[in-house]
Amino acid sequence: MNPEVSRIKDLLFEEMELALTTTASLLSMIEEEHWEYRPRENMRSLIELARHLVQVPEQELAILQEQPMEQVRSLVMSVMHVKDAAALSEVMHRGVSALKDYMNNLDEADLLHKSTAPFFAKHQPSVQIKWLIEITTHIYHHRGQMFTYMKQLGLPVSMYDLYGPASKSWTL
Q: How far is CA 100 from CA 1, 20, 95, in A?
């Protein structure tokens, strides 16, 4: 594989690994009484958001592999009763690992040119590298939502919890 293409893929997985690590850390800060917090009636509760967030890699992998809706739905149902931070983190870890295996087994041509479409939008296929970008941004979107919920609950979260040790030296 072209080293530049490989480097881009590796950088995306570095970002995903950071999101995985920081998500696990954030989840560990949530207490039982926080799980049912819902900022507004038309929004997910914290536990619903956490379950969705940790499933993004596995669920998106199934979708990009053109699995049927029933298969994707069964993934959603598999965590419906999970409230344990460690178990939720493990779901995300498993999904990231499976996604990495899939993407790392693609050759350059497939990574850059193979298109697949979700069951809900068969007329909108995307190439595999675009899926990887979308999955990474999807994770960061929901991690940011979870961070905001936690801030609203008064939990002691900071930029350090989102970006790790490097953020301690950042100034605005």
A: 16, 13, 9
